[in-house]
């Protein structure tokens, strides 16, 4: 399919259309002269400077949302366009953007966190995660994930799905689940997909995706454990917020952090080196007692407006070998707080993914008598 048809089938920005209109006569002349490139069409023979400017403008226009269909369309024109698109367009796993469903399992951005909203439906015990597109708490944003709470004997499960309507483990939209113990103080996060090469499904009845061993060879019957969340007991009923510790399996590059520049060759190398993910330990940031307000306070930078025992901020422990060790108080990796009766904010960053952050926030819902 020619690029002209692609242009007409997509809604490009005005700035890009101005560039397209400016170069159209030159391109038409190129077609008349039959100056075809190596791929057999005139589009591959476009000047490199002009081609880079076109793809750069398309990338800038799709910084936030919607789906990156225009970027994909450019990369599908020919090999030359695809190579230049790789030079300019940052891969989702490196920039923290959420543009495809697979990005929900990728680490968030490094500098500024992704700001999200969680909407709760108490009647159906359902929770919906949205990517915030504006600073307003009333705007719903872009739907990302949904979860529903089920009571399974002595424990509780949250089924997490890409579909807001189909929330079952047998669905193709099934992403993973969250399983708790009887007291709702210890949680295990399961992923439906293999998190790294060599990972084996968790054994045990609670980790199974289906009652039977196998439904289809294409659909794994088991789940893969990717994290645990524990709430500490408050036996003395001392004043203060809940205390929690999270242990997560986060994939890393050989250098220990997400690379800024990748290539097809480096991707192959990273996929082999990511066979053994590191374990990241998070703990809640210690709040401060406010004498005037007579309450425990944390600085949520305007992202939390209602006081609640569910509110928390998570930081990484300085010594990862000590779960109860001191935390890095300066960098908040995940914060969760209440802004309405059934509306909550969720802001996360690297190394957490949207799926992991959502699962951790789900553990905060529900009564925890042993912790309060």
Describe it for me?
The chain is an alpha+beta fold. It folds into two domains: 87 residues, no CATH class; 262 residues, Tubby Protein, Chain A. Helix content is 22%, strand content 24%. It is built from eight helices and 14 strands. A twelve-stranded antiparallel beta barrel has the order 1-2-3-4-5-6-7-8-9-12-13-14. A hairpin with a 4-residue loop joins strand 10 and strand 11. Helix 3 crosses helix 5. The chain is globular, with a radius of gyration of 24 Å. The N terminus is likely disordered.
Largest beta sheet: strand ordering: 1-2-3-4-5-6-7-8-9-12-13-14
Number of strands: 14
Pattern of helices and strands: HHHHHHEEEEEEEEHEEEEEEH
* Beta-strand fraction estimate: 15-25%
- The proportion of residues forming helix, as a percent range, comes to 10-25%
The largest β sheet comes out as:
12 strands, antiparallel, barrel
Q: Averaging pLDDT over every residue, what do you get?
A: 74
CATH C-level category of the largest domain: Alpha Beta
CATH fold annotation of the largest domain: Tubby Protein, Chain A
Number of helices: 8
3D shape: globular
- Whole-number tally of structural domains: 2
SS-derived structural category: alpha+beta
CATH superfamily of the largest domain: Tubby Protein, Chain A
Ends apart, CA distance between termini:
62 Å
Keywords:
372 residues; alpha+beta; Tubby Protein, Chain A; twelve-stranded antiparallel β-barrel; two-stranded antiparallel sheet; 22% helix; globular; Tubby_C_CS
């Amino acid at each position: 399919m020619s690029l002209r048809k692609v242009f007409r089938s997509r809604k490009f920005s005005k700035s890009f259309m101005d560039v397209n209109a400016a170069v159209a006569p030159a391109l038409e002349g190129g077609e008349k002269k039959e100056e075809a490139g190596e791929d057999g069409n005139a589009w591959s023979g476009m000047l490199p400077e002009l081609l880079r400017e076109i793809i750069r403008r398309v990338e800038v226009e799709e910084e936030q949302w919607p789906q990156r269909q225009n970027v994909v369309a450019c990369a599908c024109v020919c090999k030359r366009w695809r190579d230049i698109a790789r030079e300019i367009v940052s891969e989702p796993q490196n920039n923290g953007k959420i543009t495809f469903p697979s990005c929900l399992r990728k680490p968030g951005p490094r500098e500024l966190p992704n700001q999200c909203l969680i909407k709760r439906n108490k009647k159906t015990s359902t929770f919906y995660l949205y990517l915030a597109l504006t600073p307003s708490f009333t705007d719903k944003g872009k739907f990302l994930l949904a979860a529903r709470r089920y009571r399974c004997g002595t424990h509780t499960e949250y089924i997490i799905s890409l579909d807001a309507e189909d929330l079952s483990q047998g669905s193709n939209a099934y992403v993973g689940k969250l399983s708790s113990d009887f007291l709702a103080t210890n949680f295990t996060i399961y992923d439906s997909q293999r998190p790294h090469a060599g990972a084996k499904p968790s054994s045990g009845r609670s980790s199974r995706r289906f009652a039977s061993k196998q439904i289809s060879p294409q659909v794994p019957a088991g789940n893969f454990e990717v994290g645990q969340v524990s709430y500490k007991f408050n036996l003395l009923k001392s004043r203060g917020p809940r205390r929690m510790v999270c242990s997560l399996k986060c994939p890393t590059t050989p250098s220990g952090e997400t690379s800024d520049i990748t290539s097809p060759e480096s991707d192959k190398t990273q996929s082999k080196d990511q066979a053994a993910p590191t374990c990241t330990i998070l703990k809640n940031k210690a709040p401060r007692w406010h004498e005037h307000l007579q309450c425990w306070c944390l600085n949520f930078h305007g992202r939390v407006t209602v006081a609640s025992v569910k509110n928390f901020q998570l930081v990484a422990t300085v010594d990862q070998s000590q779960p109860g060790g001191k935390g890095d108080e300066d960098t908040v990796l995940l914060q969760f707080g209440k802004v309405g009766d059934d509306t909550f904010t969720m802001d996360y960053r690297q190394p957490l993914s949207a799926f992991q952050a959502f699962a951790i926030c789900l553990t905060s819902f529900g009564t925890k008598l042993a912790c309060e």
